[in-house]
Write a structure and sequence with these properties.
By secondary structure, the protein is mainly beta. The protein has 2 domains: about 250 residues, Distorted Sandwich (Beta-galactosidase, Chain A, domain 5); about 30 residues, no CATH class. The strands form 4 sheets. Strands 2, 3, 4, 5, 8, 9, 11, 12, 16 and 17 form a 10-stranded antiparallel sheet that branches. The longest helix has 17 residues. The N and C termini lie far apart (about 55 Å).
């Protein structure tokens, strides 16, 4: 199974022509180590007998239709070992978002060590491709950087555990038509739904694609998977817009309000935080001015 297209909505009769136009070096929809050993992999394991090879083939496809989403499950199995990977794709009906993740299991006699276990892989056709992402540190959070994808490896990562929100973020926007623009241009947005150590990596090699992998940061985190145990990776939320960065941002906000955030459509009280306003420069005049701002839809003052 291969990942052929992700972009503007198409009609069923267009699928054939898109497949014909795909480039010959298109990789598997979930690359594994063992057959394509020279390329970056989404999944790398060590079987109980020490073998590190995987060769997955599709054994089944199921689609479950729900009022709010359509869930497609693609089951793949190794040709030799009783090792199974399910690729899950959840397409929302009221939001232009697809969530994807993997479920990994086996029935081998011994534990299987998971060395790499990305949530998802996305091939991006080479062009003048740029990425936009956030970085920062304490008291200097959420700084925006935009940069072109160049040959080699670009990694956005964090190993701070559950306190990583003020440094690098597990989200990225991929601009397909050159330098990012707010209101126009084709853009793919990717957000890893995970609050711990993460890794987003782009591999730009001698193929026609930038290979994008997203998931838990595997550094010093190999996982021993017991027989019949199921390892579920975090969801990667994907969206696409031809209305620039703003279009992708609006898609994510709409998705969050419509179900990802509890009570997303509920009106919230506003808290005015004096610490964020004046830091240590606390004066009576400054406090009086901030207290006056409470009249502008502020429920609480700290």
């Amino acid at each position: 199974m291969k990942f052929i297209y992700y972009g503007d909505k198409i009609k069923p009769e267009q699928i054939g022509s898109i497949m014909e136009a795909s480039l010959p070096d298109t990789r598997s929809a979930y690359p594994v180590f063992g057959v394509e050993c020279t390329a970056e992999a989404a999944l790398q394991v060590q079987h109980g007998d020490g073998n590190m090879s995987l060769d997955l083939v599709v054994t089944g496809v199921q689609t479950k239709e729900e009022p709010e989403f359509s869930l497609t499950q693609i089951t793949t199995c190794d040709k030799v070992y009783p090792f199974e990977v399910k690729m899950m794709y959840k397409a929302y009906r009221n939001s232009d978002i697809i969530e994807t993740w993997t479920e990994i299991s086996h029935t081998e006699k011994k534990e299987v060590k998971l060395q790499q276990f990305a949530s998802a892989y996305l091939p991006v056709r080479k062009n003048d491709v740029w990425i936009s992402h956030l970085y920062g540190t304490w008291a200097n959070e959420s700084k925006v950087v935009a940069e072109p994808l160049l040959p080699g490896m670009k990694v956005i990562k964090n190993k701070d555990g559950v306190r990583n929100s003020h440094t690098s973020h597990a989200e990225v926007m991929i601009s397909l038509d050159g330098k990012p623009q707010e209101a126009y241009g084709r853009v793919i947005g990717a957000a890893l739904c995970w609050g711990g150590n993460f890794s987003l990596r782009f591999d730009t090699d001698d193929t026609n694609y930038h290979s994008f992998f997203a998931g838990i940061n595997e550094d010093a985190s190999a996982y021993s998977l017991a027989p019949k145990e199921v390892f579920v990776t975090p969801e990667l939320a994907l969206t696409y817009s031809d209305e620039g960065l703003g279009g992708v941002s609006r898609n994510f906000h709409h998705w969050a309000r419509n179900g990802k955030v509890h009570g997303g459509k509920k009106q919230r009280d506003v808290l005015l935080n004096s610490w964020e306003g004046v830091y240590f420069d606390i004066t009576e005049q400054g406090m009086d001015q901030m207290m006056g701002d409470i009249a502008i839809w502020v429920a609480n003052f700290l």
